[in-house]
């Protein structure tokens, strides 16, 4: 192949092999033994491995640094970057400082950060597995993918675990995060000051928190799944100081909080499933202008908790509210799919949680249920939700024939009593 290097044995010096490869050429590495890392790629080229090819750093820096555009890394196991935090530079298995690169089908282990993008735009990272060391606290790890001042990047089909944050975005806009699997991290994904990013079709599980959207705007969370985030501070997704965003058609199962919203304005939360969570939505009074519509709440200990007082949020849009499950029986006499009366949910739990977050550990205990019952009788409950147009859940509405029969029976009883009075 013109401009490509032959299959090179691991005994060769990798930096020299890179330097000998023509611009635009292909360097294919064997799997015989590990190659020495701490390599700089400063021209467009492809670095490709066989199955089992390993590039190992010496633990003092980045294993691979890319400074030129148009570089491709494919089929490599990259390992053993520096974990030192005494330097101004944050080290990674792969440090990308240029545009238009492709990193595909990589395995990254034993590195502080997995992949670090710095001022790097229009890159694609796909089908890559990044795993932390697992033998130290999360605080001792970097992030799986760290994106700093880098825009218009695509992250697709990656698997990330046992890092500090699975993916961390800092001042990085207009990127696509799609079909990734992220588990056993602190936060699965973390946006800071990062706008217009799209998060679609990802799965987050067993993290402290699934996705954290902070100080950002115009984010789209769509068709993601958040499961099994448990702990007093855990959540499926956190929306904090995040405005004008869309959270649509996501699934939240078995989380401490499915959705946590604080200091956030004008977000649309539409068509999500929140099932078997401790708290469906924890909504702080510092947030206003949220629209909740067509969401399905089912078997949550508390579907919604308002903390810090009432906020100016809306529980329906265009005449469509939310589905509240079989715990809130409704009638639909005209069979239009919308309950004939509003759904109002009240609770006293907000008081306990404001005073002590540890209450989350006991939400399923009988004591909490008794506390709620006493609050109902003492009239200390506060309205959490007032949904004017609740949607009927499947199987919740009485069949029209039974409704008609009920009306007829009531009419007959009324007529009989009237005749008795007239006599």
Please tell me about this protein's structure:
It is built from 4 helices and 39 strands. With 423 residues, the protein is mainly beta. It folds into 2 domains: 193 residues, Single-stranded right-handed beta-helix, Pectin lyase-like (Pectate Lyase C-like, 3 Solenoid), CATH 2.160.20.10; 185 residues, no CATH class. A 13-stranded parallel β-sheet has the order 1-2-5-8-11-14-17-20-23-26-29-32-35, covered by helices on one side. Strand 1, helix 1 and strand 2 form a beta-alpha-beta unit. About 3% of the residues have low confidence.
Brief write-up:
With 423 residues, the chain is mainly β.
Portion of residues in beta strands equals: 35-45%
CATH superfamily of the largest domain: Single-stranded right-handed beta-helix, Pectin lyase-like
Q: Main β-sheet: number of strands, strand sense, barrel status?
A: 13 strands, parallel
Helix content: 10-25%
CATH architecture of the largest domain: 3 Solenoid
The total of beta strands comes to: 39
Poorly predicted sequence stretches spanning 5 or more consecutive residues: 398-403, 405-409
Backbone structural class: mainly beta
Report the CATH topology name of the largest domain. Answer: Pectate Lyase C-like
